[in-house]
Amino acid sequence: MVRGWRIRLHFISAAILSAMTGAPASATELPDGEALGFVEGVCTGCHGVSTITGSSGYDAQGWLDLTSTMIDLSGVPEERAQAMEYLALHFPPNRDRAPDLRPGDALIRFTEWVTPTLGQRSRDPIEAEDGSIWWAGQWGNLIGRINPETGEMTEYLLPPDSMPHSVTLDASGNVWYTGNKNGTIGKFDPATEEITVFDMPDPKARDPHTAIFDANGILWFTLQQSNMIGRLDPGSGDIRLARMKTPGARPYGIKIDAEGFPWIACNGSNCLVRVDPETMALTEVKLPHPKTKVRRLDIDSDGNIWFVNSSLGRIGRFQPDTGEITEWPSPSGPDSHPYALAVVDGIVWYNESRRRPDALVRFDPATEQFQSWAIPSGEVYAGIVRHMRPARDGGLLIHQSSTNRIIKVDIGPAVD
Ligand code: HEC
Q1: pLDDT tens string 345-359
Q2: What is the pLDDT of residue 414?
Q3: Looking at ligand 1, which atom is closest to the CA of residue 18?
Q4: Which residue's alpha carbon is nearest to atom 1 within ligand 1?
Q5: Smallest Cα–Cα separation from 352: which of 400, 388, 310?
Q6: What percent of the chain has pLDDT over 90?
Q7: Is 384's C-beta closer than 6 angstroms to any atom of ligand 1?
Q8: I want to staple 350 with a disulfide (CB 3.0 to 4.6 A). Which of 167, 208, 341, 410 is the partner?
Q9: How far apart are CA 188 and CA 135, in angstroms?
Q10: Per-residue pLDDT reduced to its tens digit, 299-321
Q11: Cα(191)–Cα(175) distance, rounded to whole angstroms?
């Protein structure tokens, strides 16, 4: 079913946003202190306190830098100062989750943009043909556009409860988002600012997650908790769904190979899945270790499938022509939780999301060498890359979800 929706340009306050997200109250206790009530009051609207107790810690200025991208407390300067002192006293900088950063010869440069709506969980940047960068502000229920030439950013509020998990682009430059909370796919036309909403044909298909277009203009998407794969034909609006073979496989990342076959990463099981684009028949590739869970994958120019073994802290390669599977341990170890992954010019890029700083890792399959960098968020290190995609100039688009950062990574000698 297709519905029309007219977009409004919109900015919302963090207070409203907190109420909207309705995140669960936390299970972990914060230590006593004069600022306890205030911190609990303003910091648990979007996430639990375990986010704070498990953090890498900061000094008072660092806590202010970090939380200023989540909530604006400038109206209550005294309480804010007391809260930051309280946080710095009980959660000073620690190296509990420090990455094992590897030196190397490759040169990169980070360029950061801070998205406007606070605490929006900005993510999944993708570059359009005109050079603009689109992102999803999942908790802000919005999508946004950056003009990298001017730094100008525009946010577009989506129909209620869309909570977009991701954005992708079609060949005409329309921006498609996955309505993760209300079981929809939306198409945003940048020229008219109109949104067309496509409802799922089955109420069990609840949570469209990550989407990608194939060369024929068909939109393929995963539905993680629903354990399904979806196919949307924009011409007819027709949506078809297929259920994963393995219960709880939790289809997550998705990419299309050179022959037009979608490949799916299983975030709940040790599998990769190939989809027949005509029949939607699924072919499952079992990965060696039963405890493997794969967030994301990408495909190199030889047709090899590269994947993160998130649960075991490795990266892997599946060679469809031989069936061979090879894995390499990630530098920061078995619990480093590699998450997003993209292949750029034959080099595999991914991040170690359980480390603080979250490390951006470069792996060269030819030399089997790793090199890694701490991903910045202004003056602090915080956040996770949840999806990365190549930029058009051979660089990489990443983000830091905790600090509203969309980040471009320039790669190569020119950045020196
Ligand atoms: C409006 C929503 C919102 C509010 C209010 C909020 N946060 Fe956050 N916070 C976020 C988001 C979004 C993330 C990233 C979560 C994710 O990626 O899953 C985050 C992540 C964090 C992190 C993890 C940083 C890391 O290492 O990645 C810490 C620590 C944190 N918040 C502290 C606080 C504190 C302290 C307060 C109160 C002063 C606060 N937050 C209030 C939205 C919010």
Answers
A1: 999 999 999 999 999
A2: 66
A3: 1
A4: 119
A5: 310
A6: 92
A7: yes
A8: 341
A9: 12
A10: 999 999 999 999 999 999 999 99
A11: 11
